[in-house]
Structures are given as C-alpha cells and as structure tokens.
Amino acid sequence: MREPLISVVIPVYNEAAHIRHSVETIRGVLTASAIDHEIILIDDGSRDETWDTIKALANESSAVRSLRLSRNFGKEAALCAGLEAVRGRACVVMDSDLQHPPELIPEMVRLWREDEWDIVDGVKTSRGKEALGYMLGAKLFYYLFRKLTGFNLRGASDFKLLDARALDAWRALRERDTFFRGMAAWVGFRRVSVSFEVASRAEGQTKWSPIKLIRLFLSAITAFSSMPLQIITVLGGIFFLCSLALAAQTLYMKFQGEAFSGFTTVILLQLLIGSALMFSLGLIGTYLARIYDEVKGRPRFIVSERVGDEMISETRK
To answer: Order of strands across the sheet with 64-69?
Structure first.
C-alpha cells in the first residue's frame, strides 16, 4: 500500500455536530495544495453520534481512517493512539474544532520538505475568546513549567508537524501518563515555529473543565521535574532557622528574668508546620501515584473498533 506524505491525527470527543465539516475543510485545504495525505480520527469514547459519523467518513473515503477507543481515556491517550497509527512520512496533530487553522498546514509541510525542519510548532499569538480564569491559569502554568523544567511552552499548542525521525523518538518514550507538547519539546531535533491566532470553535464548547486542567497541570509538572520535591527540603530549612531564632529569643527572655507567654506563638507554629507537613505529604503522594501508575504497566489505551485498513494492535503500552 502506498505511503501517504502526511498523516493528520485528530482526537475526537463528542464532536458529532461538526466533525464532518471539519474533516471536509481540512481535506479541501490539503487537496487544493496537492498534498498526499491520510486523516486518522480517534474517537475517545464519545457518548453522542461521533463514532457513527467518523465511521461513515472512513467508509466514504480511503484517505480517512477511524479508530474507536473502548472508553474515554483522555485526549493525551487518544493522541498516543493516533500517533501509533501514523504511516506517513510526517504527521500533523491538530484539534477537531478548527481552532487550529488548516490553512497553515501547507506552510508547515513546506518548511518540513524544503527547509528540512524536523518539527514545526504551531504557536499561538493570541488565545482567542477565553474566560479570564482560564487565561490566568494558562499563564501561571507556563510560567511554573518553564521555571521548574527549563522548557518554554508559552504559546505552545498541540498543533504540530513531526517528521518520521521525531515521531519515532516520541514513540520511544514509554511512560503511560503523557503530556504531548512537553514530550515533543523534550525530544529536541531541529524545530521552527509558525504563528497563528486561535479561531472560534466550529461549534460547541471546550471539553476541558477546571478539574481536568488541574489534573493536566499536575501531570505535566510531575512528569518533567522533581523540583517540587525540593520544596519540602526548603521548607524544612526555613522552619529549622525559625526554630533557632525562636530558641534564641526564648533563652534571652529567660536569662532576662522576663515571663514569656507563648500560647499564641505555639498555636500559630502548630498550624503553620501542620499545613507545611500536609502540603509536603501531598507532593510526595503525587509522585508516588505517578510511580504506581507506571509500574502497573497498563496500556495507554484500548482499541475496541476501527475502520480502514490494518492500523495497530488492539492494545498499546
């Protein structure tokens, strides 16, 4: 079977209302630019008619391949399933809601083919229409991620082109709990950025709830840095210095023959130290949970159904 030039990987979750329009728009751009392609749609356990729609798309065109996961494993796992299925010489990862502009794909392909960049990153010049809480949360996340890991993901997105070498390197990273854009930065290679403005969603609302974003934040930070664990050591040092200062003050007051009432001080210290201990235990527990998930060795995803030619095995680690 002929190898396509580009594989477009699109995770899908409850997008029945507009996925056909999105796929047709993307295919129209690629066809107009004479780019040989395939589109891989991964249904991440949708609860609406998404699977029926993308299955129909795959039946209508040999350039579309559909993959259904056995349940909702999350976007990162769905991306893993799609990337494992790629057979093109390069792949483009994008969202299904057209907030990643398909019109930019030909330029990404040109940079890859003519200028021989290994990775072409889509970087947001603006975040589009977004609630203030989400915007501030994103800024805080990228700031902390850069400080703790050394990787600057400001403006980064999942909209990327990876050539075969970069994709093989990414596939070699076998952790179960993945963070695609961070892992894509970690593998290195020659890379260039192209800017884009986040467009309005084709239809519907974001699937990212505050709880899911917090989980992603914790997963990303703990996956790329052990620095938060050092906070515990720093806290221990601070409290040790404070205890020395308090001990010196207590001895001074004693030698001066002055009574020292420490009830309020003791209560405040207990609350402060108790909070620090709970915070420290929480950090340790987060890392232990990651270790626990990794050592179980469960697959990242399970495939329940697929439409198209042979893609991948039913499960992947």
So the answer is: 191-197, 119-126, 156-163, 90-93, 6-12, 37-43, 64-69, 301-307, 315-316
150: left (phi over 0), alpha (psi -120 to 50) or beta: left
130-143 exposure pattern, b = at least 16 Cβ within 10 A, e = fewer: eeeeeeebbeebbe
- DSSP SS3 for 217: helix
The C-alpha angle with vertex 47 and arms to 8 and 53, in degrees rounded to 5, equals 45
The CA distance from 301 to 314, in Å, is 9
Say how far residue 287 (Cα) sits from the centre of its chain: 18
Question: Which of 88, 73, 70, 81 is closest to 5 using CA atoms?
Answer: 88
Higher-pLDDT residue of 164 and 265 is 164
Convert the pLDDT of each residue in 47-80 to its tens digit: 888 888 888 888 888 888 888 888 888 888 888 8
Is 44 within 8 Å of 300 (Cβ atoms)?
Answer: no
- Residue 179: count other Cβ atoms within 10 Å of its Cβ: 21
* Domain boundaries along the sequence of the chain: 6-205+298-316, 227-296
pLDDT interval class at 313 (50, 70, 90): very low
The greatest distance separating any two alpha carbons of the chain, rounded to the nearest whole angstrom, comes to 93
Strands 119-126 and 191-197: parallel
Write the CATH number of the domain with boundaries 6-205+298-316. Answer: 3.90.550.10
Percent of the chain with pLDDT over 70: 74
CB-based contact 16:39 (threshold 8 Å): no
Strand partners, 41: 10, 66
pLDDT for the residue numbered 3 = 63
